[in-house]
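Quick log. Single chain, no ligands specified.
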Amino acid sequence: MIFVRLSSTVDVKGSLGNSVRMRSQDGGSQQALRRSNRRNVIAALRLHGRLSQAELAELTGLAPSSVSAIVRELVESGLLEVGDGIRNGRRSRTVRLDPRGVVAGGFDFGRTHARVALLDFSFSPLGARLVEYADGTPASTAVDLAVAAFAHLRSSTGTDSSRLVGIGAGVPGPVDAATGAIGHGSILPEWVGTDPRSTLEQALGHRVQVDNDANLGALAEHTLGAARGHRQAVYLKIESGIGAGLVVDGRVARGGTGMAGEFGHVSVDEGGALCRCGSRGCLETKASVPIAIETLHRGGRPLPKLWPAWPATATRPVVAWWPISGAMWGSRWAGCATCSTRPSWSSTPPWPARATYS
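-> predicted structure:
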């Protein structure tokens, strides 16, 4: 995959001095307010790492007594660990997210492969699997293969159901947020009209968040990567197709039917080649990876080996961490396992270069 990230620089990245206070958007009941406050505390710890309770109160805008109660609850739940730190030259009791506490899962579906992964609370990968299938494989078969690989991964990592707090899945096509159905414009025509969210939830026995893979990439970059701290950003994904994830005013913009970033089918040449969508001269017919490879071939250049021939049991880290991390974050943490996030090794990922020439 080729990832291009274009992010606005009008906003200053968050820090203790300039963080935007996170307020409840749930409204209504006290129970909803408590859930929102708990999420805000977890979000602050995710963004800033180890913090004192006073710093948590400052970042979230919550009363110190509320922060103390939430921290106590999260420690008892095994989500936080307590330690000692130095704040303003004095020893202070601090807390951080316990990476061993809970685990999130991620699925990244493509035309001829699916990747599954498990990540801990710090987004460090516990393991990953790649499964391959033929182009044109029905959605139900692809999902069954991925679910089997995920079950094997859970078994090999010793991840029981009680630790799995959420699962995210990314697909290369528009997803209707209301129905979960895959819309037209997907590079997987066999998936159009299917509801992978319901299928995965039934097979896994867990709630699953499903979204377009470029949207999840944008979500992960905005939460953890290059666009962190910016209100406007564009995540451009170029592979078999061309799509984008849009962050507008700090939120991923999907559009009414999930088509907001599907600009690969904008016509740039009315008399151009016929696109799979039925139109002519779409951007995708000019600048996608298959077109680039075809152009190299016509020019006599050696073709790049974009993906190594990994066996179905491969244990290499998932390459698409941002569309595996965005999926985990999308379900209030468990969305980013399908975004392609690579927080701890963004400059030197621990896998071979993805494009090599022979």
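Residues 1-27, 306-358 have pLDDT under 50 and may be disordered.
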